[in-house]
Fold N-acetylaspartate synthetase.
Amino acid sequence: MKMKISSSHTHQEPRAQQSYQLSNSNYVQVRAYRTKDLQNCRDIFTQGMVQLISLVLRVVFPRYIWLSSASSLFVLVLVVLFQWTSTAFYLYILTCAIALSMLYIHVYIECWKFINSCLATDLRDIEKTYMTNDGCHMWVAEWSGKVVGMVGLVHNESHKPGVAELQRMSVSPACRRMGIARKLLDELLNYAKDKRLERLVLTTTNAQTPAIRLYKKYGFKLVAVFLHPYKTLSDLQYQCFELHLRENDFTNRKSMQSR
C-alpha cells in the first residue's frame, strides 16, 4: 500500500505544479518599461544568456565528441596492431580531453563577450534606447510585484521604413512555461500593428529551440542562415526570421473564418 501511495503522489505533484503555474500566469501583467526596472532587466537578460551556454554546448559539442571517440578508437587499434606502449594511447586521450576543455572555455568566453556587449550598449540605458524614439519600445512582465520577463522592439537607421526588430526576449528561468513569453509577444505585436509596421525581423541562434518554436507559432518565417565566424563553432548558426504583419493578419482571419 505504501508503494501505491508514493506512486500516486509522484504522478499528482507535476500536475499540481503545472496547474499552479497556469493559474498564476493569469496574474502576470505586461506593461511598459520604467526606469526603476533597469537592473531587473539586466539581471533577467544575463541569467537567460548564461543558461544559453549549455544550449550552445549541446549544438557544438556532439561533432567534436564523435571525432574524439572515433580517433581514439583508431589510435587504440594502432596501439594493438603495432604493439605500441599504452602510454601513447593515454596521452592521446589526455590530449582529446584538453581539446574539449579548451572548446568549452572558448564557448564560455564567446557567450560572455556577447552578454557584456549587450549590457554595455542597448541595455546600459534602456530608456534612451527603447523608450525615447518612435517605433522603439520595451515591455516587462510583472508577476507578484517582480519583473520576470522582458522584450524590446527597435527601429533605427539600419531598418527600412515600416520595419522593426524584436530584441532581448527573455524570461526569468524560475518563471518559464507560464505563458509569459507569449504575453510579451502579444503585447509587442499589438503595438506594432498600432504603429502600422509592415514587418518584424529578429535574429537568434539554432541553440535557442524553445524561442524558435514560439516564433514559428506566431508566423515568423526563416529567411536567412549564417554560420558563426569561428570555424570551431561552425555548427552554431545565426537564424534570421521575419513576420509580415498584414499578411499574418490575413492568414489569421482566414483561419478564423474556416473554423
The beta strands are 29-32, 137-143, 146-154, 163-171, 199-205, 221-227, 237-244. The radius of gyration is 24 Å.
